[in-house]
Structure formats: C-alpha cells, structure tokens
Amino acid sequence: MSRDEVFEKVQEVLVDALGVDDDEVTLQASLTKDLEAESIDFLDIVFKLEQAFGFKIEQGELFPENVAQDPEFVQDGRLTDKGLAALKERLPHIDLASFEQNPEITKVAEVFTVDSLVNFVERKLAASV
Amino acid sequence: MRWMWIDRIVSLEPGERLVAIKHVSMAEEHLHDHFPASPVTDRDATPVMPASLILEGMAQTAGILVGHTRSFREKVILAKISKAQLRCDATPGCTIRYDARLTNIDDAGAATSGVVEMRDADQSEFTPVGAIDLMFGHADQNMAGVEFPEHNFVFSESFRTLLETSGVPADF
C-alpha cells in the first residue's frame, strides 16, 4: 500500500472519528490543536485504525501512557531529558523536533499529527510483511 | 437509586451482543411535560419520550454488555456518542428494543454499535427506527491517571436488580 493510499484511509478514519471535513485532515494537522480530538477520540481512532488496516494496536503503542504521571519524566510542568528519551523510544513514528524546543507537558498532545498516524500505519504494515 | 431506562434484558450473548426492551408508559411523569398542550399555538398535548432518554437507554444496554464482558470489574463510563440517528418518536404504549453489539474492547475502553427498534401496541413485529454508536471508557484506565473510588459506583444496586430480574447472574 502506497503512502498516499495509507493517508486516504487515515483521512477516512479521522473524518469518521472526529466529525471533521476531508480538507481539514492535512498531513500537518495536529489531532488536538487543529482537529480538536479529545482523550476518548484517541481510543476511537485506535479502534478505527485497527478495523481499517486489519492489525492490532497494543495499548500505549500509538499514543503514550503514564508519561505525565511519572515524576522522572515530568518536572515543573516540562518533560525531562529522560522523559523525552522515553517518548522517542516508545513512539518512533512521532516527530518531536519542534516539541523538544519547549517541552511543556500541556503541549505534548500537539505532537500527534496526521503525518504521525500515517508513519505509524506504514511501520505497522511493513512489520507485518 | 439509578434511574433505569430499560425494563428487561431479553437476550445476552456474552462479549458480543445484548438486547433489552423498554415499555413507554403514560405513568412516566416527564411525558406530561414533553410536550404539554399549548393554548398559544393551539397544540394538543403530545407525549413523546425525549430522544436523550432513548440515548440513555442504549447507553445502559451497551454499558451492561461492556461491563459484563469484563465481569463488571471495570467502571464503564459513557464517553462519546459516535452516532445517533432516530427517525421516529416513541409514544406511550410502544415498546423500544435496544440491540447493542460490542465492536471493540481493550483495557482503556470499548466501542458499541446499536440499533433502536420500536413496536407499537397494535403491532407484533419490531421495526428499526434508528442507530446509536457509543464509546465507553474504563474509568480506572483513564489517560490522565485520575483515581476513582475502589467500589464500582457504576454498576449499582439498580443494575443488579435489572440483571437478576432478567435471569442474568449478577455475581459481582
């Protein structure tokens, strides 16, 4: 499946899960900031991606868990170096370059873009071949 | 006591499907206010079950299915109405049937897909009149790490009574 085909299916998933229009779902769009996804929407997206692509997504595989609650990872409202390293290791499909400049925990959800979902799906499909 | 919007569970396929019914009765006080006669518009009283309560009926039906799937260990909270379409009013004398199917479940929560059917007092068959798809969260698994009381406040005594009167073991 080409990257364009993956994007089209991801776009369908997001239109269905978030009630947004096709043209709002660009690769650069942030799920929370631009498409206004809330926490339960992340679970909805996981379920719909599983259905659309026929693979299983383990809890925490696509979106991180228990990062904000770990005092080793978050201090004074900012992700520590250890926290950033943990995120990079757990979520290789996410581009953290701009977030690293100012790693405020309240903004961590903004790193989840449509592009990161497409990356994630491509990795999963490649791993299943 | 929880305000129950289903009268009886009529079918349970564990982990897959739960069907429940509700009889709409003129004895329900809210129907007298929804909607009363209006001298201004010269409208007669029109008792109609509010669509929001039909949603709640499906949420209770699907919520029991989700809870039963994990042996009522999880606190199952309605988190999202993914779809709600109703093409018909529910009026006193009719029976509503909620047919909920579990489409996905994991540690964080579950998704259900449901069909709403109605049967009027003079009909023998149910007719599909709508669809309601829902998302539920398992409260103790929330992403924010918020802690809740240990006892399962969701599946209260009212749910236990409903299960028992429907012949479904309520061993939780």
Question: Describe it for me?
Answer:
The complex is a heterodimer of chains A (129) and B (172). Chain A has 129 residues and is mainly alpha-helical. In chain A, 47% of the residues lie in helices and 3% in strands. In chain A, strands 1-2 form a two-stranded antiparallel sheet. In chain A, strand 1 (74-75) and strand 2 (78-79) form a beta hairpin. In chain A, helix 1 (3-18) packs across helix 2 and helix 1 packs across helix 5 (114-128). The mean pLDDT of chain A is 91. By secondary structure, chain B is an alpha+beta fold. Chain B has one domain (8-155): Hotdog Thioesterase (Thiol Ester Dehydrase, Chain A), CATH 3.10.129.10. Chain B contains 3 helices and 6 strands, in the order ββααββββα. Chain B has a 6-stranded antiparallel sheet with strand order 1-2-4-5-6-3. The mean pLDDT of chain B is 93. At the A-B interface, helix 2 of A face strand 3 of B.
Strand content of chain B: 25-35%
Question: Biggest sheet of chain B, open or closed, and with what strands and sense?
Answer: 6 strands, antiparallel
The count of domains of chain B is: 1
Radius of gyration of chain A, in Å, reads 15 Å
Query: Helix tally of chain B?
Result: 3
Largest sheet of chain A: 2 strands, antiparallel
